[in-house]
């Protein structure tokens, strides 16, 4: 075994004009989450516990698009989704359409541990949450004034925003015309802004056990009931005995590519190493989609890959390496 390794992400696709202050806030949050995970790994917590712990921290901070601070639907509400997967036996849990659960990733963990199912959604997931006694809050808890303003801009532009952490001055040109000029597309339809900020964590512990977790509020101004890649095992999240992967970016492209599973598949079937596998799927499996991913292998390797304009990310290994970054 190569020792433990951990990676976190806050989304791929970053506005190039993002203010320096925002960039520093993001780096500080990623660093805090990495240090939380590192401490847990040094205390010999298993990988599955560490990914849940770290993603809970990300969900509790409104900076990124998960938990508190989630993107708003077309109706101005929040519908969150998350998934978690334990590599050794490929156990998994996923949830969608959450409106009151404070930490979606922990409900996904309970679906995995305390139910006979792998995926619960909407009213069924909410009912299960109450049966399990998880902390719930009013939907208003997740809604920030910044989100309300961004939803207003999205509606004025008659557009879906991949996410919303774009400074207001950058959205003054966010219009149908701008979308047509940029030709950013999703399932053949134009969108105006590309800046997804799903959160995720992947870990391999000192025993070589891999785990992954991903959580998001989805797209700003999305249709109610829309489900993205984050809760879909094999697309946004995957872990097995070889590796663990968490994806972020254009959800529909990630779904079509079954991106997370493909990393493991080419390692297993083509004999590629982790870096080669990540490079291959980013280059060959996304078609015209934009996305990124973080991955660890059972050998203690850690890799971040993306074809978008930057990705909020951080990683660390047992031998003392630690890095936090946004751009290439």
Automatic annotation (TrEMBL):
Keywords: Autocatalytic cleavage, Hydrolase, Protease
Catalytic reactions on record: Cleavage of a beta-linked Asp residue from the N-terminus of a polypeptide
Pfam families, per database record: Asparaginase_2
UniProt site (Cleavage): 197-198
EC number(s) on file: 3.4.19.5
InterPro entries: Ntn_hydrolases_N, Peptidase_T2
GO molecular function: asparaginase activity; beta-aspartyl-peptidase activity
Classification via PANTHER family: ISOASPARTYL PEPTIDASE_L-ASPARAGINASE 2-RELATED (PTHR10188:SF13), L-ASPARAGINASE (PTHR10188)
Protein name as annotated: beta-aspartyl-peptidase
Organism: Turnera subulata
């Amino acid at each position: 075994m190569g020792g433990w390794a951990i990676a976190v992400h806050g989304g791929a696709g970053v506005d190039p004009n993002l203010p320096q202050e925002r960039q520093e806030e993001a780096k500080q949050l990623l660093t805090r989450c990495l240090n939380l995970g590192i401490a847990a790994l040094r205390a010999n917590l298993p990988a599955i516990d560490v990914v849940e712990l770290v993603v809970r921290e990300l969900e509790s901070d409104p900076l990124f698009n998960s938990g508190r601070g989630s993107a708003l639907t077309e109706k101005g509400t929040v519908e969150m989704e998350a998934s978690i997967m334990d590599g050794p036996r490929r156990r998994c849990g996923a949830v969608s359409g959450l409106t009151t659960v404070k930490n979606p990733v922990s409900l996904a963990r309970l679906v995995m541990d305390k139910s006979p199912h792998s995926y619960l959604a909407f009213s069924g997931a909410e009912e299960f949450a109450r049966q399990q006694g998880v902390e719930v809050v009013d939907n208003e808890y997740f809604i920030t004034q910044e989100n309300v303003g961004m939803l207003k801009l999205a509606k004025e532009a008659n557009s879906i925003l991949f996410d919303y952490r774009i400074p207001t001055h950058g959205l003054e040109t966010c219009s149908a015309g701008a979308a047509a000029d940029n030709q950013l597309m999703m399932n053949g339809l134009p969108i105006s802004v590309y800046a997804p900020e799903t959160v995720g964590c992947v870990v391999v512990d000192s025993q070589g056990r891999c785990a992954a977790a991903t959580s998001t509020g989805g797209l700003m101004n999305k249709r109610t009931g829309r489900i993205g890649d984050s809760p879909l095992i094999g697309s946004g999240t995957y872990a097995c005995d070889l590796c663990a992967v968490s994806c972020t970016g254009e959800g529909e492209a990630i779904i079509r590519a079954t991106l997370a599973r493909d990393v493991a598949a080419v390692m297993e079937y083509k004999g590629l190493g982790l870096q080669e596998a990540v490079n291959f799927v980013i280059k060959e499996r996304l078609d015209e989609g934009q996305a990124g991913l973080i991955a660890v292998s059972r050998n203690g390797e850690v890799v971040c890959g993306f074809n978008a304009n930057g990705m909020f990310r951080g990683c660390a290994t047992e031998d003392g390496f630690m890095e936090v970054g946004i751009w290439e």
